[in-house]
Amino acid sequence: MNPVVIIPTFWGLEGGAGSADGRGARDRAAHDRAAYDRVTSLDDPNPPLEACLASLDGVDGILRVMVLLVSDPQGEEDARARVELICAAHPGLNPLVIGSQEAAHVEHAVGRMAHHVAGETVSLHSCGAVRNMGLAVAAVLGHDVVVFLADDEVVDGADFLSKAVWGLGSLTRQNLRVHAKSGFFLSAGGDPFAPPSSEWSEKHWSKAAEFNRAMDRVLSAPSRISRSSHLCGGCCALSAAAWSKVPFDPYIARGEDLDYLLDLRANGIDVWFDNQWSVQAQGVAEAGETPELFVRDVHRWLYESRKLDAMNARRDLHTITLSSLMPYPAPWISPDVRRRILLTALRRLVTGPNRAAYLKFLVKGRYEAEKFARLTSSRYLSFAMVWPTIVSALWCDQMISAAIRRTGEVAPVASSTAPSDPLGETGAIPVVGEDQQ
Q: Which segments of 155-303 are extended strands (E)?
């Protein structure tokens, strides 16, 4: 195997739900795919990416770490400088930064092959498109396994990568090939379960109960891996047999990892849960519940419900039943989700705050969300049809590889040893050459 660890990192983006100023995506459309949950401020003295990479230094078998840099164009130069400085302190990870300059080579190539597909499908713009960019660059560099890690997570143990690839390509007892795996993340307190909400207004909107039942089932399974209805985007491993066939959905605004599980399953590929593989959350504060976040989730679940109907209507795809997605996420992509949406908006309208925002949603917003889901739910299928051709064309493309590595590879930090010390210079830090990947 030739695995690569891929870490998307989001910097200095205005309007992200996790931005440093605490503002949600107030000025963005609810379905805007550039509103991100967790964003690192440009002046953050302790960016989570540093701790993430530091935890990888002790991992055995790391061949390359790819950092996907997403930032506003206005602040990209500063963000790039910060990220390169962080990466340079970890030369053993063979870091490669993919910013707009490197991404442009891939986008140009993809544009020639998928010119008829609407929107940005492989780019540094939305969570789904960003993950597709990671897959595309992995294809260019010839990596046959990708391991996704979030920049606000740290790994524990030198065997992280060996756990990640354990079982990939093997057959289960049901004679099914394992091509996609999910681990799980532990909270700062070491808890794998979601905290429940006791708020009256959240009775129909909290996913903790269903999610925790699903987690309890796979964590207590007698075998190490079991079929999963959940995919943790910050701790997952995909073989080329899966990701070269199925892309992430670039049109969904939130939850692209769970959505990817549905995309894989529709193509006959199951996700398997590994109950011995986990990562540790750094405890980065997530944004609280806001009207903007609620509306984005509404768009997400209505889109997901419509998209599932569209995929099930295709004869060339496998039918996905709601019963196979119990206890989570079935209740959230069933027709009943509309009742949940209405009741939650009404309860929040009653309890406040932000009554005006929820009244506006009830009068207008929920109908706009339905319209968006109806009009866009089939776009992914057109893109997915051409994705295998894109990956095949990009695979080990020497010209694109050379162009990306020329600017994306990060030189190690210069030694701080004083030149006058005759015993200080005991050997140069090796720099990865063109023939080493």
A: 180-186, 225-227, 235-239, 272-281
